[in-house]
Amino acid sequence: MRVIRGAWVCVAIFGAVFLTRGLAEAQSVPVDLRLVLAVDVSRSMNAEEQYLQRVGYVQAFQNPIVIEAIQRGPLGRIAVTYVEWAGEQHVTVPWTLLDSRRAAEAFADRLLRKPTRVARRTSISGALLFSASLFDDPTFTGRRRVIDISGDGPNNLGPRVVGARDRVIAKGITINDLPILARGTSLAGFFDVQNLDRYYEDCVIGGPGAFIVPVLETGGFAASILRKIILEIAGLTPSPSPQMAPRILSAQFSRDTGPFDCLVGEKLWREFMGGSEP
Questions:
Q1: Which contiguous run of DSSP H or E holds residue 264?
Q2: Cβ distance 124 to 38 under 8 Å?
Q3: Nearest 5°: CA angle at 33, between 219 and 158?
Q4: What are the phi and psi torsion angles at 86 (to 5°)?
Q5: Where do the DSSP E strands lie in the chain?
Q6: Could you read off the pLDDT of 233-265 as tens digits, one per residue?
Q7: Model pTM?
Q8: Phi first, then psi: what are they for 95, rounded to 5°?
Q9: CATH, domain range 32-250
Q10: What angle is formed at CA 115 by the lines to CA 114 and CA 117, rounded to 5 degrees?
Q11: Cβ atoms within 10 Å of 33's Cβ, excluding its own
Q12: What phi, psi does 141 have (nearest 5°)?
């Protein structure tokens, strides 16, 4: 009798597990795209850049072109979350379903009302791994998963960025980037690197159709963000343009790790700290 009762207990437990999993899957909302907007809020971004970056994302989701791009998808809906990162990560706006003008504008309004966080250091690797973990949320399902990361400098904290990138794209996630090449009155000029767009191309982005859209001047935030989001929603890769043409400039460090030194940020930090480890 005890053996029989034990067997029935096991059956009940397994049945409950499968039922719970089935209910969770049934409640998941299928979408055309799950998009993580991972936005740099490190101290190297001055107040003007922080403001223009935030407003650029707000205006993009208020734009009728973005709303039309969402509604033209096979399902006519996407899921978006907004993350701010530097040496740490924070979800500013959690996963939100965008399936109409009203939903997109509500997302933009919610984002506009949130205070902008500012934090020390630059951990691109931490931002990528954190952003990838957000796709484990079962609320939404969809084949296309994209991390859209902005940044104005190289990785100088946490795991090596190439290893983090490779772990993320191995899961089938695409990483796109908005490298911020415009420099205002930032006090962090010591950590600036030449050819930052090449750094993000060689060391950060990856996955199917990965691309970068650089911000070349402070006034270009809104246009670059809008273009990038439209391309991501539509599942397109931008064609080459004069603004994205390769430029040959002298490297700041040796290129013994590949086309671009992907450890340039860590080396700069050690130099800044007088040779001590990051």
A1: helix 264-272
A2: no
A3: 65
A4: -155, -105
A5: 29-30, 34-40, 78-85, 89-98, 140-141, 145-151, 174-179
A6: 999 877 655 444 333 222 233 333 446 789 887
A7: 0.82
A8: -50, 130
A9: 3.40.50.410
A10: 125
A11: 22
A12: -125, 155
